[in-house]
Specification:
alpha+beta; two-stranded antiparallel sheet; 50% helix
Length: 407
């Protein structure tokens, strides 16, 4: 029997023998010893697995798959991503014998080994082999006291320790490359599940993530909340992820409306429509300008915050018809046009209200009034057609318009 197969069999037998032992009855000292020893054994197994995987290209060839990692993933129900990480570690250990020795001895963790190898490999080509070896040795020594997270940070500046004359220049180039990748990879995806919840994920540069986290942690600080607010419906204390989620809601709902970016002359706010009776009623609903609905109680609460505009039908709270007092439609009028028209009034156009311009049917320059009856929403393209003498605009009974080329 091959020694590696024999080792695996012995480890399996030992683990099987220990599986029925109840660790609850161990003393504190025994638990401490066991936990450290098991961590070292895991490192040794990680090293052996990675080494065997790196030497198993013939396994992939035998089965006609990309590499041994793909075969292992299929046979062991491991994700290919995880198997390829092990394969990458095995190949890195071949290039870094000192790291392999430290991991095989159990004194190094697999993630530490990956980071040390990556840090040394990332050194610029102009760094000589002696400096590379010194960097690797230094990181291995630091690994005794630092975890993988700290080692990653130290690895980026290892040249400051072993070769200060090139360290600063290297760090600058590394940071610039990181920042460029971070900027190019920025994205945000959001979707509504139709059951009252919105889900999303985002990728932003690290400093932006740190800023957002700092803001949310400040809002989630227990010192800002009562004991009742810190407890969930079950009476248990809310986990941090729940409190951070609530902090994000507070962050968005209370964002100053005057600071929101403007789209087509109106701040990026949400308009809630309801009748005066609904506003005052105990049980009622309100409609958002995107067609979704919320309870009137929720609307009343949000109306007291920022970023929500209550459009109460039947109320004269805002002047909507200014006649000749102003040439441009006001913010209040733009909101009313959006509620009335829903978007571009050109038949067949699906541009939303936020992407439209406010157009005078009778031009202001020809004594047309700046009021709702004389206004309509048109997207930029149809707004250009409305002012193009080559086209005739026809207003239909449903307030929709069509354009036809003049002959």
């Amino acid at each position: 029997m091959h020694p590696i197969i024999g080792c695996a069999a012995e480890v399996q037998a030992a683990l099987k023998a220990a599986a029925s032992v109840e660790p609850t009855f161990m003393t504190v000292g025994e638990k401490q010893t066991a936990l450290v020893a098991l961590a070292e054994i895991r490192s040794q197994l990680d090293a052996l697995t990675a080494r065997v995987l790196a030497a198993s290209d013939d396994v992939g060839e035998q089965h006609g798959v990309r590499d041994a990692a793909a075969w292992v993933a299929m046979q062991t129900r491991t994700t290919q991503r995880e198997a390829r990480r092990d394969l990458a570690l095995g190949r890195a250990l071949e290039q870094h014998p000192a790291v392999a020795t430290a991991l095989t001895s159990g004194g190094l963790r697999a993630e530490q080994a990956r980071i040390i190898a990556e840090a040394v490999d990332a050194l610029p080509a102009r760094v000589d082999s002696e400096t590379r070896e010194l960097a690797e040795t230094t990181l291995l020594q630091l690994a005794i006291k630092h975890d993988a997270r700290d080692l990653r940070r130290i690895g980026k500046r290892i040249l400051d320790v072993v070769a200060p004359e090139v360290g600063e220049c290297h760090e600058q180039s590394v940071l610039e490359a990181e920042e460029a990748r971070a900027t190019a990879g920025v994205e945000l995806v959001m979707s509504d599940d139709g059951n009252g919840r919105s889900h999303g994920r985002f990728t932003v540069p690290s400093h932006v993530g740190a800023m957002l986290k700092r803001h949310l942690l400040a809002l989630a600080n227990p010192a800002r909340h009562t004991e009742a607010e810190l407890r969930a419906e079950s009476g248990e204390l809310k986990p941090l992820r729940r409190r951070l989620g609530e902090a994000l809601i507070e962050y968005i709902e209370r964002y100053p409306s005057h600071a929101t970016p403007q789209t087509a002359g109106v701040n990026a706010t949400v308009v809630v429509t309801m009748t005066l009776e609904q506003l005052l009623a105990e049980h009622a609903t309100a409609m958002l300008d995107d067609g979704s609905r919320m309870s009137a109680g929720q609307a009343r609460r949000l109306a007291c915050e920022a970023g929500i505009i209550p459009a109460v039908l039947g109320s004269g709270a805002q002047p909507l018809d200014l006649g000749r007092a102003a040439r441009l439609f006001t913010k209040a009028q733009r909101i009313a046009l959006g509620l009335r028209d829903g978007g571009c009034t050109a038949r067949g156009c699906e541009t939303s209200a936020s992407g439209c311009h406010a157009h005078h049917d009778d031009p202001w320059s020809r004594r047309g009034l700046t009021d709702l009856a004389n206004g309509r929403l048109l997207c930029p393209r149809h707004h250009r057609l409305a002012h193009d003498s080559r086209y005739a605009m026809t207003v239909h009974a449903d307030n929709k318009v069509t354009f036809a080329r003049r002959t």
